[in-house]
Design a protein that fits this description.
Layout lengths: L12 H25 L5 E4 L3 E8 L13 H23 L6 H23 L2 E9 L2 E2 L5 H30 L4
Antiparallel strand pairs: 1-2, 2-3, 3-4
């Protein structure tokens, strides 16, 4: 009789756990940023380059549609929810041996759901990481944005450099 015990680290649940860790870290750091910086001064981490501050983003990435009148809250929330469902299914269907692609997807899923939490609960996303140089300022972002960006970069790297290897592995059933 086969052993049907549940092994968290040999199932798609490990990727959902990673996504959950991203969500919890994101929410925790946002709460910290609100407590520390909402009414106080920014904290210089690397003077002239990096600081922690507080900002509210009512739009999407880089405050896109931030002044659209409120409908964007629900639109971006719906997009994040639908995308998250697609990623959950995608993760479930990946071969257990894969590591890079599901890690990337889990980071993206955690980031999307972290920002979705803010959008649904507050109507905006809390940001606190500010990168700047002189008069140039990159839009303020958060841990969820970092997870999404790293996950997306990992998917691009997978597509550009490892896609052929994955296709060969899938066709033969064994690594080449």
């Amino acid at each position: 009789m086969p052993n049907k015990s549940f092994d968290l680290f040999a199932s798609p649940w490990r990727w959902y756990l990673l996504a959950l860790m991203v969500i919890l870290l994101d929410i925790d750091t946002k709460v910290w940023a609100v407590e520390e910086f909402m009414h106080g001064p920014a904290l210089q981490i690397i003077p002239g380059f990096l600081q922690f501050t507080y900002a509210e983003n009512y739009g999407a990435a880089f405050s896109f549609l931030a002044d659209a009148g409120g409908w964007q809250r629900w639109f971006f929330g719906a997009v994040a929810l639908v995308f998250s469902i697609v990623v959950v299914v995608w993760l479930k269907r990946l071969p257990a041996a894969k590591r890079w692609e599901p890690t990337a997807l889990a980071l993206i899923l955690g980031g999307a759901l972290g920002n979705l939490w803010d959008r649904v609960m507050l109507g905006y996303v809390r940001d606190f990481i500010s990168v700047y140089y002189g008069n140039w300022h990159f839009p303020v972002f958060n841990v969820a944005d970092v997870a999404i960006s790293v996950g997306a970069a990992m998917l691009v790297i997978e597509l550009l450099f490892f896609k052929d290897k994955d296709e060969q592995t899938d066709k033969s059933g064994a690594e080449v």
